[in-house]
Amino acid sequence: MPTLLLVDDHPVVREGYRRLLERQPGFTVVAEAETAAQAYRLYKAQAPDLVILDLSLPGPSGIEAIRHIRQWDAAARILVFSMRTGAAVARQAFAAGASGYVSKASPPRDLLTAVAGVLRGERAMSPDIALAIAQDEVSGGRTALDDLSPREIEILGMTAAGATASAVAEALCLSLKTVQNNLSLIRAKLGARTDAHLVWIAVGAGLVAAPPGPPSGES
Predict the structure, then answer these.
(1) 128: Cα separation from own chain's centroid
(2) What's the order of all strands across the beta sheet hosting 78-82?
(3) Which stretch of DSSP H or E encloses residue 57?
């Protein structure tokens, strides 16, 4: 009987897909987590057959959770279930060790199909994610984020989501100076003129959702 770990910081969302999954014969949700750190601890404690996780978590993102879990268990099966649909983000998730990626805009059957596929050892994607990656490859397969390291992408994502450098340092267990140095390198690599420009580069690459309304000073 396959066992599942759900990772999402919204209890109502977790409850919804817990009910969907447990209506399927044989699926059992053995644990739920709200943060990357909780996901890592619960994976080690429960050893589930499959982790289903969102990328947008308080503190370190789901990418960090994927990376840590796969460092602990190279055979871990992890399915991303996220609002983020950008090809660059999906590629980062797969590079970190994800086995599948489904957008939350997908119908429930796509999630169930992906769960079954990942449990069989396959790589699974919802149609919109597969299309985004295919279009990205046809256009050359490079985005603004391709020159960033996984750590720099983690810092960029948290910063673009509104975290201060101090908050990023605390969440990632880094010194403030290290985070500030990384932000300087990120700005240089991306050619970001302002912090607002940095945010919109991250939005354009699908790393974070667009903020409500135009940023000050940008048209």
Answers:
(1) 16
(2) 28-33, 3-7, 50-53, 78-82, 100-103, 124-125
(3) none
pTM of the model: 0.75
DSSP 154-199: HHHHHHHTT--HHHHHHHHT--HHHHHHHHHHHHHHHT--SHHHHH
What CATH number is attached to the domain comprising 192?
Answer: 1.10.10.10
Give the mean pLDDT per block of 10 residues along the chain (219 residues).
93 93 91 94 96 87 90 96 84 91 94 95 94 78 70 83 87 87 91 86 74 49
> Residue 85's domain is classified under what CATH number?
3.40.50.2300
CA 12 remoteness from chain centre: 19
Polymer length of the chain: 219
Residue 138 to residue 141: CA distance in whole angstroms: 7
